[in-house]
């Protein structure tokens, strides 16, 4: 019979989801966050509680009478069923209260979460503000240290400027003393200016005379160039005679060996002439350098003549004049030797290029080698 009562009680019990709420709370399967549709979970649960809430009995315990022994089995079943219904009703009431308190706790939790997020945001802002304040204080300290360093540098520079000012004052006093001494020397030098001017005029006249000699040397060089042109004309005459000799050499026999020997001699003579020409050019360059040195000495002599006081300028001018004459004569000798060597080298080159044997004219046409015809 107890089993039947339990079965009837289970059958008569309401088929609702109220009994699943404690299970979900105990198993912690009910989330506290929002649903995918964006609504709060606590609001939905509270609305469900309000919908499922039914009117509670006014006085369940007051209506219950003391249990009496049933007269028969059916009465016992009815009493057991009523007791189970009463217990189920009390249990449902407790569940509703728990659900209401759970909804309230969820709402409080949501408010606490919002407040916590707000507090954390304020804390982060305060941390950032504190960091900014620290950075500003550090920059202020660095700026203060830089200002102190600059102040120390400025003080050091001020000390150095004061020292430089003192040294400048000392230099100014020394300069004033030197100016006074120079004024004394100037007054002494003014008395010697007349003699220096006369010496300078004499040196200037000597310089003009040396320039005249240089012009004469240039004229001699021009005459030497005219002689070179005459030598070229003589070379043309020699070419004409060589043409005549060429006609005679056509009848000569066994001339190949002699031509080779003569050509070798001419090449050797040309080499020696080129070497002499190089030496002559070097000598000419040395003469030019010596002439430049002499001119430099003359210029220095003129400068010293302006500053000379009681020196024997006449002897120095004579020495300079002798040096100039010597260098001029040496330069002329070098130039004449160079002109001569150039003329000989040119003749040897022309003879070698034209195949003209140097020994053929002296020994006669029978010793000349046959030469090819060359137009001139």
Automatic annotation (TrEMBL):
Coiled coil: none annotated. Residues 1-81, 159-200, 241-315, 354-376 are annotated as: Disordered. It comes from the Eukaryota. Transmembrane segments: none annotated. Residues 173-200, 241-259, 268-282, 290-303 have a biased composition (Basic and acidic residues). This is Uncharacterized protein.
